[in-house]
Amino acid sequence: MAELSADLGFCTLKNPVIPASGTFGYGEEFLPFFDLDLLGALILKGIFRKPRSGNPPPRLAETPAGVLNSIGLAGPGSEKLQEIIRRLHAKTRTPIIVNVCGEDDREFEEVAEIFSAMAEVAMLELNISCPNIKKGGACPAQDAGHTSRLVRRVKKVVRKPLIVKLSPNTADIVGVARAAEGAGADAISLVNTFLGLAVDLEKRKPVFANTLAGLSGPAIKPLALKLVWEVCRQVRIPVIGMGGITSGRDVLDYILVGAAAVQIGTVNFCEPGAAVRIIGEIEAEMDKLQIKNLSEIRGKLQA
Ligand SMILES: Cc1cc2nc3c(=O)[nH]c(=O)nc-3n(C[C@H](O)[C@H](O)[C@H](O)COP(=O)(O)O)c2cc1C
To answer: What is the pLDDT of residues 166-198, one digit of tens each?
Structure first.
């Protein structure tokens, strides 16, 4: 039987499958579907200091191979999330990762400090790449200098491994990844959603109030895989890859280009049990291809 454990350097996950932030609620919603202990880890929906209502509707638009979203990071605020995490932790031993958000650098720091202090939280993911907060999709991960300053600031106050989540909406993702690494990131995750546009032909207006929205799902897999490959070749810290994963084979593709683990996002909306199916498929695929463990193929793409 194939060995599925995923080595992140600072910890080992029992398998490489992690539901992505914003597509798995606050974990509890998925308890009726499967045992959360089966997951490598799980990431909660992004959180700010105070409750947020997010963007006005519509917030989702389907595309032929994915979805555009403009949720705008609606959420209950950090106090309420701490209660949710305590409840969730009582029901699962799977490592819980908090997706930390901020309107400015100070808020990122504050929120990171709050959740770093919780024993129930295993790691933090710094969401410096959400395209749906500011009009035009601007975010810190579009700029290497800003990324470096922000990661350095947050690292000073946290005592938990810090994963920095990157945006595909930049001309130099490798430069930003290197900036995050240089500032002390323990790992990098990529990608957040690609900026896209949907229009209403009758009204001659954009579908979304913010004009632009974030594209995810199978449509982005080749684009995301390329970015993960490029970043993996240029940084030493572990990389968690994501974008359009729907099968065990997709997961192995990301491992082959160098990812240490993966996140699965949009697929959770179409199929709440997708994570468990995908974990089973990885094992079957590895047995078929006679791969004994993930490190045997990690980063072994011959290109
Ligand atoms: C509805 C929706 C909400 C999301 N919310 C968050 C979020 O709160 N924080 C975050 O870092 N990423 C968020 N994302 C991005 C996903 O975590 C992931 O990076 C992206 O969807 C690409 O993976 P996928 O193609 O497997 O969905 C969201 C994505 C969707 C579709």
So the answer is: 999 999 999 999 999 999 999 999 999 999 999
Among residues 11, 101, 130, 270, which one is catalytic?
Answer: 130
Q: Is 168 helix (H, G, I), strand (E, B) or coil?
A: coil
76: preceding bond cis by omega (within 30 degrees): no
**Residue 162 Cα distances to 29, 42, 96, 229, angstroms:** 25, 15, 13, 21
> Is 270 one of the annotated active-site residues of the chain?
no
Dist CA 72 CA 123 (whole Å)? 23
Cα separation values, 139 from 53, 130, 166, 195, Å: 19, 6, 10, 12
What structural domains does the chain harbor?
6-56+73-195+220-296 (3.20.20.70)
Gyration radius of the chain over CA positions: 18
pLDDT tens string 275-296: 999 999 999 999 999 999 999 9
Cα of 282 vs centre of ligand 1, distance in Å, is 22
Q: Rounded to two decimals, what is the model's pTM?
A: 0.98
CB 258 within 8 A of CB 15: no
